Amino acid sequence: MNRSCGIDWASDHHDVVLIDDTGSLLARARIDDTAEGLAQLLQLLAEHGDSAEEPIPVAIETSRGLLVSCLRATGRAVYAINPLAAARYRDRHAVARKKSDHLDALVLANILRTDAAAHRILPADSELAQAIAVLARAQQDAVWDRTQAGNKLTSHLREYFPGFLAAVGVRRNGVCHPIARVLLAATPTPTQAARLARAQLRSLLKKAGRKVTINAEAERLQTALRLPQMRQLPLVEEAMGRQTLALLRQLDAACTSADDLAEAVVEPFEKHPDAAIITSFPGLGSLSGARVLAEIGDDRSRFADAKGMKAYAGSAPVTRASGKSLAVLARRVKNQRLAAVGYVWAFASLTHSAGARAHYDRRRQAGDRHTAAQRNLFNRMIGCLHHCLTQRVHYDENSAFPATLDPQLPSVA
Question: How many Cα neighbours within 13 Å face the side chain of 91?
Answer without folding.
Answer: 4
